[in-house]
Amino acid sequence: MTALAAAPEAPVIEVDHLAKIFRSRFRRRSVQAVRDVSLSVGRGTVMAFVGPNGAGKTTTIYALLGLLRPSVGSVRIFGAPAGDVTVRRRLGFQSEIFYTYGFKTATQVLRFYGRLSQMSDERLAAAVPRQLERLGLSAAADRKVNGFSKGMVQRLGLAQALLHEPELLILDEPTTGLDPEGRKLVADIILEEKARGTTVFLSSHILADVERTCDHVVILNQGRIALSDSMASLRSASDEWEIEVLAWTPAARDALAGVETADGAATGSIVRCRAADKRDVLLRLLHADAEVGAVRRVRSLEDLYMRYAGGSSSG
Amino acid sequence: MLILIMVVSSQGVLEEASQAGESVIVLQSHTQMIQTVFTIWNVAALFLALYLGAVAMRSEVTAKTLPPILSRPVERSTYLAGRWIGTLSFLWGFELVGLLLGLVMARVWAVPTTPVLWIACAGAFVAVTFASGLSLALSVAVHPALAGVLAYIVPFLPLMVDDATRHPRAIVRLPATAVYYLSPARMPADLFTESFDKQLRHPAYWLYGHVLLENTGYVILVFVIACIVFKRREVQLR
């Protein structure tokens, strides 16, 4: 891995009041895709970037890559301006749908992108089969990409992003088109990379994967940051719990009669209560011989997402 | 295919003329045929060069293959130069096939040629280099279709503004003069025609060489400017 130019404690990604305005030809119309976005991603952090379609996620990612220039604000990666060649040497990027040259085989595609990342032949010889195996593509190594399924192409896209062992991974909807097995594979790889110390900037719609893999969540809505918080903080701030009751007894119904529950009555199979009442409710249910199933926090990322970004999808 | 039909269809008549002792007519016909082959091939190569140069960048944008490349540590000028070299390698191969075809025909039919033929061949390579490089360079700033049209028109600019350079009003004369001198050089003769003339009308080899060098330099300069523009401007991703 290349030595860090910036100090180890310095943020890997620094976005300062980023705004991006797209103007049509002759400037008759303009669309502001991103408004006053500021964020900082520390080394080894997995940052989730979620939001509805058209929220400005991909625009922000392209600004991180230096493909788009900010209309206002600045973007710095590893302390250098986004798009700098030294920065690009240290990052890996997977686009929402990986478009590549279909006439090449999987191995040729990886070798092509590896060479663009200035990898030596020796490194490529070791890295290409390793990444193909990691992404479950070893059997298709010598097949042309034209014949690949959508999921295989996506996995190849992730393989090319990981090939040169980048210090920063920017993944734009990496699980698009993947089956549950593929989604789990991607989540596992993100966790592996996190354990390796890689910083991951993940744009995703799959909130369950985000909850599983990410340290920090940013919800973007209509170009603005609607919420930015750590997963730990979001979890600890949760106040509501759900207790699944698989089998009720008359005694259990009587036992919960005086308990204030979120749904008001203990007739359903789910009992909602505040965190402070959770222990009491559980004890009453168990003493009354009710069969209790899962006990979980109600306030999931999905709830937060719906609160901060729900109903504003443009796609 | 057009060339093949032309050659095959005329062979019978020329064979009969040859047997009848009309060697001059046969030689003239063969010469015309070879000149036509060169002309058709070069026109095809020119339009191919204009098209491939103009769409070289756009095809990557349309295919959405640009972001994974430009997110790598690759200078944009290197990428652009790579696209041009890739396009040129195909165009030069195409041009080589046509020129070899014409040269083989000249050899088989024993058609005498002049040394200008070799400069004409070099000129054909320069022409496709110029057309592809200019259209690719212009496509960085304008729509590919417009880039192709402009790259086609640019070599004719000196002819188009020639009269205006002598206009009495300065407001017409000065811009026309500027355009005249900013335009690429024009070859003073059709070299492929001259290649088969017994008596050279313009035997100024140094001038032909100068024009080829100047146009090569011209397109390289325009390409360098395009690289600078491409580096500074935002990548069109849609």
Describe this entry's structure for a reader.
The complex is a heterodimer of chains A (315) and B (238). With 315 residues, chain A is α/β, with parallel strands linked by helices. A six-stranded mixed sheet of chain A has the order 6-7-8-3-9-10, with helices on both faces. In chain A, strand 4 and strand 5 (80-81) form a beta hairpin. Chain A is built from eleven helices and 13 strands. Chain A has helices spanning 57-65, 85-88, 106-116, 121-134, 150-162, 180-196, 207-213, 231-236, 250-255, 275-287, 301-309; strands at residues 13-23, 30-41, 46-50, 72-77, 80-81, 91-94, 168-172, 199-203, 216-221, 224-230, 240-247, 270-274, 291-297. Chain B is mainly alpha-helical. Helices cover 76% and strands 0% of the residues of chain B. The longest helix of chain B has 41 residues, at 23-63. Chain B starts with a helix and ends in a 6-residue tail after the last helix. The model of chain B has no long low-confidence stretch (mean pLDDT 88). At the A-B interface, helix 2 of A face helix 3 of B.
In short:
The complex is a heterodimer of chains A (315) and B (238). With 315 residues, chain A is of the alpha/beta class. Helix content of chain A is 35%, strand content 26%.
Number of DSSP helices of chain A?
Answer: 11
Oligomer: heterodimer
Low-confidence stretches of chain B: none
Structural class of chain B: mainly alpha
Total E-strand runs of chain B: 0
List the helices and strands and how they pair.
The complex is a heterodimer of chains A (315) and B (238).
Chain A: E1 13-23, E2 30-41, E3 46-50, H1 57-65, E4 72-77, E5 80-81, H2 85-88, E6 91-94, H3 106-116, H4 121-134, H5 150-162, E7 168-172, H6 180-196, E8 199-203, H7 207-213, E9 216-221, E10 224-230, H8 231-236, E11 240-247, H9 250-255, E12 270-274, H10 275-287, E13 291-297, H11 301-309
Parallel strand pairs in A: 3-8, 3-9, 6-7, 7-8
Antiparallel strand pairs in A: 1-2, 1-4, 4-5, 9-10, 11-12, 11-13
Helix pairs in contact in A: 3-4, 4-5, 6-7
Chain B: H1 2-19, H2 23-63, H3 66-70, H4 76-108, H5 116-139, H6 144-153, H7 157-161, H8 170-182, H9 191-194, H10 205-232
Helix pairs in contact in B: 1-2, 2-4, 2-5, 2-6, 4-5, 4-10, 5-6, 5-10
